[in-house]
Specification:
129 residues, mainly alpha, MROH1 protein
Length: 129
């Protein structure tokens, strides 16, 4: 997975494809490996983090029927945390666009999802003056 940091888009695409391919035969193993990699590399630049997250999404979508319930629950939580972190990182440069997107998740009369509130809070902390 370290090759996701390669600047060549073809290499990045090959890593994505390899993760997806391996995820077809061993989805839970790949999801756990991706999760562990993201945890160990919490400073990984967001474009590279996105490659791994997209691969995780594809593996989950293609294997949802065969995933163990506990794996799915854990992956969803970790995936949401990673996605929130990506939004916060992007928000350090493009705060208006990210805030616009996050605010669309606030609907009148509906309690927002935990990670929406967390993302909103982390955006405000990271961009506080």
């Amino acid at each position: 997975m370290d090759a996701t940091t390669d600047k060549d888009p073809l290499v990045q695409e090959q890593i994505y494809n390899a993760l997806c391919y391996l995820g077809e035969s061993e989805p839970e193993e790949i999801l756990h490996s991706c999760d562990e990699y993201l945890r160990q590399h919490d400073k990984l630049a967001y474009p590279h983090r996105v490659i791994i997250l997209k691969a995780m999404e594809t593996v989950v979508r293609n294997n949802i029927a065969s995933l163990d319930k506990s794996t799915a629950k854990e992956v969803i939580r970790d995936w949401q945390q990673a996605a929130s972190s990506v939004l916060v990182a992007v928000g350090q440069r493009f705060i208006n666009k990210v805030m616009e997107e996050v605010l669309t998740k606030f609907q009148p009369g509906i309690l927002p999802h935990y990670f929406i509130v967390q993302t909103f809070a982390n955006l405000s902390v990271s961009n506080g003056e």
